[in-house]
Amino acid sequence: MNNRATALVLFAAFFAFLAAAGSAALAVSMDKSSRTKECAAMIDGKTIHIAAYQPEFSLDKFCDDLPATGKTVLAFDFDSPSLRDSPVEIRIVKESMTSLPTGGDLDPLTEAYLAPRTYPNGTLYFEHDFKESGQFIVLITFTQLSGETTTARFKFSVGQPLHRLAPLMVGGALIAFALLFYWRHAGKRSKPAAAARV
């Protein structure tokens, strides 16, 4: 087998490996966001458990990587009794290149909003229809009896299941370029040898 044929076989084997690795990585990403994964936000040392469901897409429970746009149910569980007694406000904003304004008007960035109220049983369900993919932040704001507010932030992505594969794709492109470079130069080196035999 000459150098060109060897390079071609290596090139084909590499892309077969890349396709298999990409499928495996996507499967791992989906599994990591399924029933076994739990997400949480902390506020004043107290835990807020967070999960997301997309019944039109899957029966699985997701966390910080929602695989599709569309109707999504976000579930929040408050372990601490003090959190259950405080009015809680939920605001979902689309993450922008600039930092969120502190104490400023968040309405232009707001994707969804749930007005403050208490949840004595410690569980809050919030449904929203995500029309666009992207990176989002949930702002969970509690109001104490004194009127002081405390906000926890939780970041998540919607409809971007392949963003975790970006490093693999970049590495794959570099290796493909190296193989192509080798293939072309191996062909050039073999021509003088063939001419010499003639």
The total of helices stands at 3
Total domain count? 2
Strand fraction equals 25-35%
Strand count: 10
Assign the CATH superfamily of the largest domain.
Answer: Macroglobulin (MG2) domain
Largest sheet: 5 strands, antiparallel
Helix content bin:
25-40%
Write the layout of secondary structure elements.
Blueprint: H1 3-32, E1 39-43, E2 46-53, E3 61-62, E4 65-66, E5 70-78, H2 81-84, E6 88-94, E7 110-117, E8 123-130, E9 134-143, E10 149-158, H3 166-197
Helix pairs in contact: 1-3
Key terms for this structure?
single chain; 2 domains; Immunoglobulin-like; elongated; 5-stranded mixed sheet; 5-stranded antiparallel sheet; 3 helices; 198 residues
Q: Overview of this structure, please?
A:
The chain is α+β, with helices and mostly antiparallel strands and 198 residues long. The protein folds into two domains: 3-26 and 165-197; 34-161, Sandwich (Immunoglobulin-like), CATH 2.60.40. It contains three helices and ten strands. The protein has helices at 3-32, 81-84, 166-197, and strands at 39-43, 46-53, 61-62, 65-66, 70-78, 88-94, 110-117, 123-130, 134-143, 149-158. The strands form two sheets. Strands 1, 2, 3, 5 and 8 form a five-stranded antiparallel beta sheet that branches. A five-stranded mixed beta sheet has the order 4-10-9-6-7, with no helix packed on it. A hairpin with a 7-residue loop joins strand 2 (46-53) and strand 3. Helix 1 (3-32) packs antiparallel against helix 3 (166-197). It is elongated, with a radius of gyration of 25 Å.
